[in-house]
Amino acid sequence: MLDLEIVPERSLGCDAWEFVLGMHFSQSVAIIQSQVGTIRGVQVLYSDQNPLSVDLVINMPQDGIRLIFDPVAQRLKVIEIYNMKLVKLRYSGMCFNSPEISPSIEQVEHCFGATHPGLYDSQRHLFALNFRGLSFYFPVDSKFEDMFLFQPGYAHGLGSLQFPNGGSPVVSRTTIYYGSQHQQANSSSPGGVCGAPLPELPLSCYRHQLHLRRCDVLRSATATQGLRLHMFTEGPGRSLSEGGAGRSVCRVVRFGSSAQRVCAALGAPARTYYKADDKMRIHRPTARRRPPPASDYFFNYFTLGLDILFDARTHQVKKFVLHTNYPGHYNFNMYHRCEFELTVQPDKCDTNSLVESRGAVCITAYSKWEVVSRALRVAERPVVLNRASSTNTTNPFGSTFCYGYQDIIFEVMSNNYIASITLYQPEGSRPRYAVNSIA
Predict the structure, then answer these.
(1) Cβ of 185: how many Cβ atoms within 10 Å?
(2) What confidence tens digit (pLDDT) does each residue in 122-141 have?
(3) Residue 193 has what pLDDT?
(4) Which of 4, 224, 296, 301 is in Cβ range 3.0-4.6 Å of 306 for a Cys bridge?
(5) Where are the domains of the chain?
(6) Where residue 429 falls among pLDDT bands split at 50, 70, 90?
(7) Architecture of the 2-185 domain
(8) How far apart are CA 436 and CA 439, in angstroms?
(9) How many helices (H) does the chain have, and how many strands (E)?
(10) How far apart are CA 267 and CA 256, in angstroms?
(11) Can you give the pTM of this predicted structure?
């Protein structure tokens, strides 16, 4: 049984780890993965068809805990303890819920005080005791209903509510949220829309990494030139204990930039990935006489939702991959969502010998492919992409579909959302020198 500390309006955790309001989905998953054997039977709940309108939920049924994430920002907004019998809970070191201690109204008042009025829902027979950033919900027996309806004295303290021995209501559910909007945080259905306010990313979750606010794709009429990345990280010279604030950073990375320049602009990548060699090369007649060719390599920036591909010979940028991190995709949870904005000028089309010109199309991480393809008039048949971790396993999420347009490859999921966008530089247009640009 987990023994956890509640911090209203902030977190639920212990000395080794804590779930903090505002933290990213991937950081919560990393905590759960680090507690294999302690936290078991974890479920991820999401909507395949409406991933932006239904909350993203991590459910831990064996511990009675539910983590509710904003579906757009993918950051934690509500922590819900829905089975009080499966977990021990403390506040400021004082235990108020355990197999030996029942979380009754009197126990909650003793531990937290009764400085806020309670609310009684006569339709659901549920009494809610609300503090800033914390709510307790008590199911009320119908025989005690008049006590809550006609004795308003409990609004200034629960001492006026007198219950017979063993008759005091016991907490059935506890929610931790940001701010004082407890009515908005009251969501009892897993995966349901929950309108609790969302805090900023806590400084304890920065972890000395750059995080993306917005990515502007720099383009000429029909070609990509590079990316302008608006990011934030910890402020210089300020520790978290001193209340250090984040600072904004803006950098530009272009096609042709060297690996050293990219590192100077964005810092060291979270991982470097080398593209696999051609497995059939060993069967070629010249394979034994020629040295193996060098492999192109990626810089993976997971918190930016970005991969950058470098040419193995020139060590210059030749491709960008922007990830949208939708649940149900093969790479879900590897990257944070790249909040990009891509403006594409459609190709001119010849209709009855007249050149037709169409307006620019703005594409973001939330655009649906049916809208984008209609505006760009993409008629090309897609390439079906089916990822698998090995030849013996299959992809449980199904195939995605890749469409090419100008110098862009759109990877589209079956629900019509864009999983990733690849921006590349055609072979003939690559410069022979590096474009060294940081700001």
Answers:
(1) 25
(2) 777 788 888 889 999 988 77
(3) 44
(4) 301
(5) 2-185, 206-429
(6) low
(7) Sandwich (2.60)
(8) 10
(9) 6, 28
(10) 17
(11) 0.85
Cα separation, 136 vs 110, in Å, equals 14
pLDDT bucket at 380, cuts 50 / 70 / 90: confident
Long-range contacts of residues 145-154, Cβ cutoff 8 Å, at least 24 apart: 148/118, 148/120, 149/120, 149/122, 154/114, 154/117, 154/118
**What's the token pair of residue 113?**
């005080």
Could you give the count of Cα atoms lying within 13 Å of 100 in the half-sphere of its Cβ? Answer: 1
Contacts of 33 (CB under 8 A, 6+ apart): none
Per DSSP, the residues of 163-220 read: --TT-S-B--EEEEESSS-HHHH---STT-------PPPPGGGTTT--EEEEEEEEE-
Edge-to-edge, what's the strand order for the sheet holding 65-69?
Answer: 43-45, 56-60, 65-69, 76-81, 173-177, 134-139, 126-131, 118-121
- pLDDT of 279 above 50: no
Task: Return the pLDDT at 309.
Answer: 97
- pLDDT higher for 309 or 431? 309
166: left (phi over 0), alpha (psi -120 to 50) or beta: left
